[in-house]
What does this fold into?
Amino acid sequence: MKYIVAVLKPHKLDAVRDALSNIGVNGMTVSEVKGYGRQRGQAEIYRGTEYQVHFVPKAKIEVAVSDAQLDATVEAIQTTAETGKIGDGKIFVMELANTVRIRTGEQGEDAL
It folds into this structure.
């Protein structure tokens, strides 16, 4: 099993959710986060005055998938979230040791 964390532009969230649903990935956790990468924030203009925004709003999604779903999931996130502009985000893939469904006690891939 794998645990995927993706940080992307907030306006791409619904499209990514739809793309993941279409390939059979059910369930995700979404957080509103702020951060920056290589772009080091961005310049904003408010009432004619330019100021620097150091932390850019992003959406973070977390998804647990089986090993068989990994490639399709990463591809769906990457192709759907891409705008071709700086700040599109990142996808992190980690090994997931175990999963337990609290209600039934199911473990491993059965709990996904």
